[in-house]
Amino acid sequence: MSARICVVTAGHLSTSPRMLKAADALHAAGYHVRVVSANHTPWATAADRLVSSSRRWEWTVVDYARETARAVQMATGARFRAAQALSAGVGAARVPLPIAIRAYSRAHDELVGAVVAQPADFVYGGTTGALAAVAESAAQLGVPYGIDLEDFHSGEQNGANSEQTHALAERIERQVLDGARLLTTSSPMIAGAYARKYQVQPVTIHNTFSMAPAPASSSAAAGPLRLYWFSQTLGAGRGLEDVIHACGLAGIPTELHMRARPSAPYLESVQALQRDVAPSLTLVHHEPAAPDEMVRLAQGYDAGLSCEESAVLNRGLSLCNKIFTYLAAGVPVILSRTPAQAALAQDLGPAALVYDGGDASGLADRLQRLASDAGLRRHAGAAARAAAERRWHWEHPADRGALLEEIASVAPIP
Question: What pLDDT digit, counting tens, does each position of 189-217 carry?
């Protein structure tokens, strides 16, 4: 009988590409795989169904969306708010652990219930809301567990409640990391941060993707410089204002394509900024798409943007999935000089253009050079594809292969 692995995320199936890739790889290796994910945001529900329709592993949904599970939505919300209030009043370090867990994860109990509803030989999961659920469900099933630390959770927020959120994350991580038989993370610098803080050694599995076939036409075609950026949410703190200012300073015809679910006030603010400072720039908004489509949708642009800001610790340590999506599409990357991105740029060579975050003038210079030199665009695109072929693709032994090797050490491949 094949070993049974339950893969867990507190996010939507379509917004958790790491767990999606893990489930696919484990299924292809011969494991019996079941994925537990959540449903809470209407725009991602259709994408979840599309993603699941092409998979042969099992899928269990924890639904607490207002539209489809109103009672659960109200109950989880009430529990979450009460736990947060108690944690804030008593302090994250002193509040009973069960309350801290429920102040950090809205659907903790529902995720645990979904996991333990069927037997498993190993539980593996990630995202903030699933950390404690993975450990608790594995304990109830009497099996080992592994945790994916895609982000440095005690340093990934900013804003009014970030200190409390980080304290809750640290409390939970101290409880669950030592018991894990396997820890993975998404960048060497995040691995180093966890090692320093908790004396653990996560294995780095990068956010790489399968390569797309080379497009029939060159990305160095005549016309406006075409830039591409995507994320789950279009909002502040992602460096897009720098890009708009840089396009205005460059004074060249440019298109900035943004694929994300927008906050209406924020979208209006960047449109107003474009009108004020970058009249030669055209903003184009695209709706979110399923993860299986993201590499293909990135093709045909002159450069992809990863303009992370280092004010949030996690963003300075991260190598986000957009970088490797661009490379898999054969598109060069424009990177802000965060510690992690600057280190990666040294490996990428001409496939990466690096600028200092906040330096719109420096970014404008790079955009002007890219726009004015078709040969440079062709060379950068070829370098991006070569980098993906050489190292930065999901099938590389250091990514998918490393994940399978680590899991096989706990749950042998049949």
Answer: 999 999 999 999 999 999 999 998 887 65
Closest residue by Cα to residue 10 from 197, 195, 172 = 172
Beta-carbon count within 10 A of 342 CB:
15
Domains of the chain, start order: 4-208+395-408 (3.40.50.2000), 225-390 (3.40.50.2000)
Q: Which residue has the tokens 């004010």?
A: 311
Please say if the pLDDT value at position 402 is more than 70.
Answer: yes
Sequence-distant (6+) residues with CB within 8 A of 195 are: 201, 202
| Cβ(43)–Cβ(66) below 8 Å | no
239: left (phi over 0), alpha (psi -120 to 50) or beta: left
Tokens coding 186: 């998404």
pLDDT tens figures, 258-292: 999 888 899 999 999 999 999 999 999 999 888 99
Residue 248 CA neighbour count, 13 Å, CB half: 18
Provide DSSP, 351-391.
Answer: GEEEE-TT-HHHHHHHHHHHHH-HHHHHHHHHHHHHHHHHT
b/e string for 18-32 if b means 16 or more Cβ within 10 A? Answer: bbbbbbbbbbebebb
With beta carbons less than 8 A apart as the criterion, state whether 102 and 109 touch: yes
Q: What is the tens place of the pLDDT at every residue in 50-76?
A: 999 989 999 999 999 999 999 999 999
The per-residue pLDDT for range 155-196, each reduced to its tens digit, is 998 877 899 999 999 999 999 999 999 999 999 999 999 999
Using the structure block, give the residue that is written with the tokens 């011969």: 30
Task: Provide the pairing of β-strand 254-262 with 225-234.
Answer: parallel
